Amino acid sequence: MKKRMVVAFLVAIFCLFVLGLAFAYEVSEVMNGGTIEGRVRLSGSPPPPKIIGVGQDREVCGEVQKSYEIEGKKGGVKNVLVMILEIGKGKDFDFPEAVLGQKECMFEPHIVLASPGKLMLASSDPIPHNIHTKSIMNPPINITLNRLKRKSSLSVTFPEIIDVKCDLHGWMKGYIVVAEHPYYAITTDDGSFQLREVPPGTYELEVWHAKLGSQTKEVTVKAGRKTVIEFTY
Amino acid sequence: MRKSIILIAIVLLIGFGKGQKALGKNNSAGSSSGQESFKKNCAVCHGEKGLGDGLAARFLFPKPRNFSDVMFKIRSTSSGDVPTEQDLFDTIKNGMPGSAMPSFSYLQDEERWDLIEYIKTLGVKKIGRKKVNIWKIRRKPHVIKVPPQPGLTSELLAMGKELYLDKDIACKECHGEKGRGDGPKASSLKDDWDYPTVPNDFTRGIYKGGGTVRDLYLRFTTGMAGTPMPSFEESLPSDKDRWALTYYVKSLAGKKVAKQLSQEKIVVKKVNKEISMDPKDDIWKDVRVVKIPTMLLWQRQEAAEAVSIKAIQNSRKIAFLIEWEDSVVNSRSIRHEDFTDAVAVQFALTKPRGHFSMGSKEDPVNIWQWRLDRQMDLEKFHDMEDVYPAMVRDDYQLANPDYPKSLEKEGHLPISSAQFHEKTYITGWGAGNQFSTPTRPRAVEDLNAGGFSTLEIQESGDQGVAGQGIWNNGNWQVVFMRSMKTASAKDVQFEVGKQVSIAFALWDGERRDRDGQKAVSFWQILEIEK
Ligand SMILES: [Cu+2]
């Protein structure tokens, strides 16, 4: 058993070398980690949602769909991806099981965080939807979920932000974020986020929003302490 | 060093190990001869580096594939998987009817394998600062086994229809109730490259991946990567359902199945008579007709599927009779929103490389283009009855308001009068100023091209090609005639016993064809009989 693991490891190193892919993250126990806590704010108020008239499928999708390009409460921006840019070592993945759902003709959540492995796909609507992904490193798929198949899965191996759409409903758009390490977060309604058990050190922290783009800031984490940071779009 | 790293190690191990195997024979000789063949046969569309940006790409919809994307519509494998080598082999051999992707059936098998080897080296993306060959990081493809095909029964067909119309299976949402490609979702679909795309019109029997029941079974089971066409591998799991749907979809086209173009030989028959310009002349009666499929340079729902060619010569003159189906006559290019029907014959002045070309610096071409609007300018000075004495008047479909005869001749502006043309149209094949000459006393123009957008009209004195067209019951018939030999180096010269490469292009005004938007054939061989 041990021998096999060593071989696997060596092969992994070899692959990393050959492919030149940065998979340099190593899981190790984090002693005395710190916390990064923050908010992503919007200067000004978010634009009103686009109202899209639903032609077909009104029974399920409603009369209109509201498409929020920028969403958030209390001056914060929701659905912003927050990540430490380069980190060699740290805790193991601790994300909740990632499920990309389709509910009332929307992707739920709008942006789903996944660790490398399998991402579950599930529809709870009584009408068919496509899950059509656009990715470079991970295999791009286009499958239908319908009454004969409500659940499926997608193998995601490489860190990447993947666009998702449904060809049957033009407004249905979402994102899958395949994380390189566990120090990733998505902001909540009021734009807040938290990264826990971060090994002490100085990092580049990046925020990314589909519409607003990205920003980076340097952040220093001290042992057992909380560091507060704020981004403004 | 814990679980996740090992997991990644294993995933990579599987991914990489198998990816490597999928590459098959990995000799660099194959790849370099593949590269040569690619330059010769594929680069005009797919680009020198396979990035889908060849010289012709500008005119083509759907666009030629960018091979760095590693996206393939025609697969026997699950959604997300790369195609098998056999899938690629079949695509290259059969082409993709309904797109500009030609059939390379004339290549040797070995050359096709070399091309596949080479295409796999093109699947490279820049990730951060590193270059990654996507083929090498994809898992070994899961190949869908097509189970034995059941016999066709009316029960199966009825079941297929029911599945097709099932809202939860969704075929009709895109492909439409009657399978005409006009479902409620059809008009808003886009492909992964952000171009609008249309669902297949099943009544036409044109399938990119082939029209056998096996092909159709695979196409909706695997989906077509990069398009809205999803995979039903999981969402229609029963074999029986799939066969039922396959048979039903196939039945919508009747027996029609489009084949992609290949190369034909047209023999110019020797006649010992004067050749007339009348397409109905008896002289054409015993001449063998060669039917040549055309492909669209612009994807749309309908187009002539073939041109029929006859060719004769009497030692002094050579003539071609070209016939094609076109249900509506379009001639009023005088109004901005109208376009004209037109046909062109193209001759290679050298031995052409590849089998599709608008000419290049090394391989210039000579083009004879007939346009209905120009012919109608001419008719202003003739009476139709003089030109086609044998014609039955009632049969003459041009006797509609478009026909200048029914207009006030004196005040009637020449149809090619420049100021009334849309500029893009005037430029014709993308050429320069000479095209804006308001009137020209010819229905046919003698042109030269050395690559895209380098079209030149020959000097007035060198314009030696005559042409006449008539439209009869849904068919155009156009005769071209010229002397076998001319004094101009820009003209193709015909010699008894020799071969010339010839190709055809059609514009359908009803479909607003113009410029690069047309149907074309590949190079065919023209042989001048002794
Ligand atoms: Cu949907």
Write the CATH architecture name of the largest domain in chain A: Sandwich
Tell me, rounded to a whole number, the average pLDDT of chain B: 76
Distance between the termini of chain A: 51 Å
Contiguous runs where pLDDT drops below 50 for at least 5 residues of chain A:
7-20
Largest interface: A-B, 50 and 55 residues
What hetero molecules are in the model?
A: copper (II) ion
Number of helices, where a helix is a run of at least 4 consecutive DSSP H or I residues of chain A: 2
Amount of helix of chain B: 10-25%
SSE order of chain A, one letter for each helix or strand:
HEEEHEEEEEEEEEEEEEEEEE
**Proportion in helices of chain A:** under 10%
- Alpha carbon gyration radius of chain A: 20 Å
Main pleated sheet of chain A: 5 strands, mixed
Q: What structural class should be given to the helix and strand makeup of chain B?
A: alpha+beta
Provide the number of structural domains of chain B. Answer: 3
CATH hierarchy, class of the largest domain in chain B? Mainly Beta
The rounded Rg of chain B comes to: 26 Å
Quote the beta fraction of chain B.
15-25%
CATH topology tier name of the largest domain in chain B: Immunoglobulin-like
β-sheet strand percentage of chain A: over 45%
Structure overview:
The complex is a heterodimer of chains A (233) and B (530). With 233 residues, chain A is mainly beta. Chain A has two domains: 30-77 and 187-203 and 210-233, Immunoglobulin-like (Sandwich); 94-180, Cupredoxins -  blue copper proteins (Immunoglobulin-like, Sandwich), CATH 2.60.40.420. Helix content of chain A is 9%, strand content 45%. Chain A is built from two helices and 20 strands. In chain A, the strands form six sheets. Chain A has a five-stranded mixed beta sheet with strand order 9-15-14-11-12, with no helix packed on it. In chain A, strand 7 (99-103) and strand 8 form a beta hairpin. Mean pLDDT of chain A is 90; it is low at 7-20. With 530 residues, chain B is of the alpha+beta class. Chain B has three domains: 9-137, Cytochrome Bc1 Complex, Chain D, domain 2 (Orthogonal Bundle); 154-251, Cytochrome c-like domain (Cytochrome Bc1 Complex, Chain D, domain 2), CATH 1.10.760; 265-381 and 439-528, Immunoglobulin-like, CATH 2.60.40. In chain B, the strands form two sheets. In chain B, strands 3, 4, 5, 6, 7, 8, 9, 10, 11, 12, 13, 14, 15 and 16 form a 14-stranded mixed beta sheet that branches. In chain B, strands 1-2 form a two-stranded antiparallel sheet. In chain B, strand 12 and strand 13 form a beta hairpin. Chain B is globular. In chain B, 47% of the residues are buried. Mean pLDDT of chain B is 76; it is low at 1-27, 299-303, 331-338 and 380-440. Copper (II) ion (CU) binds at residues 105, 129, 166, 168-169, 172 of chain A.
